[in-house]
Amino acid sequence: MTTTQDELAAVFRRESGRAVATLVRMLGDIDAAEEAVQDAFVRALEHWPRDGIPPSPAAWIVATAKNRAIDVVRRESTREERYRRRAVLTGDDGTQADPASAVAERLDESVADDQLRLIFTCCHPALGMEARVALTLRLIAGLETRDIARAFLVPEATMAQRLTRAKRKIATARIPYRVPPSEELPARLEAVLAVLYLVFNEGYSGTTDATRPDLAREATRLTRELHRLLPEEPEASGLLALMLLTESRRPARFDGDGHVVLLESQDRSRWDAGLIEEGQAVVLDCLRRGRPGPYQVQAAIAAVHSDATRFEDTDWRQILTLYDQLFALHPTAVVELNRAVALAEVRGPGAALAVVDGLPLERYHLWHATRANLLNRLGRTADARAAYATAAEFTENPAERAFLLERAERG
Amino acid sequence: MTEYLFSVHHDYSKPLFDDDADVEAMFRDTAAFNDEAQAAGIYVFAGGLEAPDTATTVHVREGQTVTTDGPYAEARERIGGFWILELPDLDAALAWAAKASAACQGPVEVRPFQGV
């Protein structure tokens, strides 16, 4: 029983995004699509423990949700209203006689781009950045509202309201359900990449859990889709490469007890060689185009790290040069902080500390952690311990906090 | 198709334009935008409004009609003019809003009318 429920939860995380995207295309209504998919999972909860898990759980969910949606459309007293909305999203004129059969006809349409269309809808610039991320996590990645609320550090009711408001704006302002035409793509793509990057980071180093591999995988999968659909967009390639190279280190990031292992101490033989090879190939391919952007340069930095078989072999000069380039493209204090880590390796911890101390990042845990590391290397161990303790206060991630507290104790 | 209100917002606490040449350019560009919208078949209605100090507010409360000189709420920024355009979706509306903003040299708020 419990096994079935665990498995069901896993199927939900994996499949609900795809199912919702398909149902949105069919129904043209995000709330109705979510309802149908939720319904299908409720039915699974009734049937599967009794009948066993079907051979293809995902297909079962989508088929059940589709049938459920057709039933609902057929019975709905407000079906004309719903049909009108579907026509808005799909570009039909809304005059077809039988809504249910029109929905049924859509069953066999290609579903390959459903998620991309839904991503571009969720990441529309007419929505605020927080709403874009929240909608993407809810609709594409299948996160519960409760989990998204925790990630944003707001009450669940507040997040539920934000999601409702965003969905209402999509429907009433008629944000179209489509991948934008090529002339609008670069501007719209930037918003999508920013959201996927945030989702990946939440999955790689989450605010709530130490790590959410499913979220990171989902973000990578969606970026791969984006890259396949838009092979001429180098920043989409750059983000994909960055994700692949970052993800390649996952097996070495925690020790057997679940403790964080720093880059310098990681067992590099455990890095995923396949992901590294793929990531490096994508980096080379996009850099060759000569249109560098922040994601491409970050991917190039990750590629230099993955070139070194030992930490001591890292080409820090090249990394420092790449950080200079990144800062020129994207001049932020966080980039300066990361650059300072490379600077410490090239010119020593004293030079790096001088840079770090001038950065306005007092509320960012990695600012304190970086200071602590540099202070330690300069022999100022008491200051370093205090900085580790402060860093622990500013992180939400339990594994990071444990690591930082341990460093604060041990020095 | 949906009707959208494109409202142009002015900051009435300072002069809207630096000199007459700017005003002329704005009127010329706005007239060209209107022509383009009409040619595209999306134009429903448009108009510029007189200054907010020409407004009068009427409010019936508990059967009493209260008439007040001036606009309803205190604010620096007010609607200076508007368009009503009929467009298929928000992306189309935002593309036209960008042209409208460039023509009238002010921020343009886009809001859908309630469906009938």
From TrEMBL, chain A:
Residues annotated as domain DUF6596: 188-283
Xref: SUPFAM superfamilies: Sigma2 domain of RNA polymerase sigma factors, Sigma3 and sigma4 domains of RNA polymerase sigma factors
Origin species: Demequina muriae
Domain RNA polymerase sigma-70 region: 12-77
Family assignment from sequence similarity: Belongs to the sigma-70 factor family. ECF subfamily.
Pfam families: DUF6596, Sigma70_r2, Sigma70_r4_2
NCBIfam families xrefs: sigma70-ECF (TIGR02937)
Keywords in alphabetical order: Sigma factor, Transcription, Transcription regulation
Keyword Transcription regulation on entry: yes
Superkingdom of the organism of origin: Bacteria
Protein name (database record): RNA polymerase sigma factor
Keyword Transcription attributed: yes
Residue ranges annotated for the RNA polymerase sigma factor 70 region 4 type domain, each copy included: 121-170
InterPro entries named among the record's database cross-references: DUF6596, RNA_pol_sigma-70_dom, RNA_pol_sigma70_r2, RNA_pol_sigma70_r4_t2, RNA_pol_sigma_r2, RNA_pol_sigma_r3/r4-like, WH-like_DNA-bd_sf
Automatic annotation (TrEMBL), chain B:
Species of origin: Demequina muriae
Top-level taxon in the UniProt lineage: Bacteria
Residue ranges constituting the YCII-related domain according to the UniProt record: 22-112
Classification via InterPro entries: Dimeric_a/b-barrel, YCII
Transmembrane segments: none
Designated name of the protein: YciI family protein
One Pfam family per UniProt: YCII
Similarity remark: Belongs to the YciI family.
